[in-house]
Amino acid sequence: MSNVKKTWAITAQTVINGLEKRNMTGEYCASAAEALEAAKRYLVPGTSVSWGGSASLTEIGLFDVIKESGCVALDRNGSSDPEITKETYRQILFCDTYFMSTNAITLDGMLVNIDGKCNRIAALAFGPEKVVIVAGMNKVAPDLDSAIKRARNTAAVVNNVRFGNSTPCTSVGRCVDCQHVDSVCAQIMITRRSRTPNRIHVILVGEELGY
To answer: What is the distance between the alpha carbons of residues 5 and 177, in angstroms, rounded to a whole number?
Structure first.
């Protein structure tokens, strides 16, 4: 095991301890393959599942597994009909299990997420029975200020580039607090505690995943 991996494992335990103090749970997986196996535990045939847009979930191969899981998959991109899409967004808030990543997580277990449509942070805050978060150790920040900066200056900038948006950050490489129509930064949510014990579970992964 490399020194980086050893350090990540130690850091992950610090984060998990912080999550537990905040009514959330966590576990550490050394690899994306292990993280996929951990995520599979929540794919119970016959239950409804959905997800937020996430490069991390794509990178561990979760979407291919969902197709074969026997779960009822609520896919917001499953129809070209805008009315069906709108109704699917609503149904997602009542699903059994919701998968997502997080833009940042602090050492003491707070989650920071920044969204455009805000369907992802809405599901994190309320609705789905269980929320499972998969996050590479690259998402860990030492404190809340650093986590917010990471969400705004790393995750949001890369996502604006990925979506082909013409926001100012795509030209300068950092957040300039714009009000651009294409901005993915409509709302920033800090999850400092879960009122429902164990509803939110974080799978920390000893790899760089997502943005």
So the answer is: 35
CA distance 81 to 13: 45
Q: Given the DSSP bridges, would you call strands 104-106 and 200-205 parallel, antiparallel or unpaired?
A: unpaired
CATH fold for the domain made of 3-109+117-139+193-205: Rossmann fold (3.40.50)
- pTM metric for this prediction: 0.95
Tell me the mean pLDDT in the region 163-169. 94
The structure tokens 């499972």 sit at 132
CA–CA separation, 153 and 56 (whole Å) = 18
Strands 140-141 and 187-191: what pairing?
Answer: unpaired
Q: Tell me which residue of 160, 198, 210, 205 sits closest to 42, measured CA to CA.
A: 198
Alpha-carbon distance of 116 to 108, in angstroms, equals 26
Q: In the sheet where 104-106 sits, what is the strand order?
A: 140-141, 104-106, 111-115, 187-191
Where does the pLDDT of residue 52 fall: very low under 50, low under 70, confident under 90, or very high at 90 and above?
Answer: very high
Which residue type does 94 have? F
Span 133-161, mean pLDDT? 97
Please write the tens of the pLDDT for every residue from 64-116: 999 999 999 999 998 899 999 999 999 999 999 999 999 999 999 999 999 99
pLDDT at 142 (0 to 100): 98
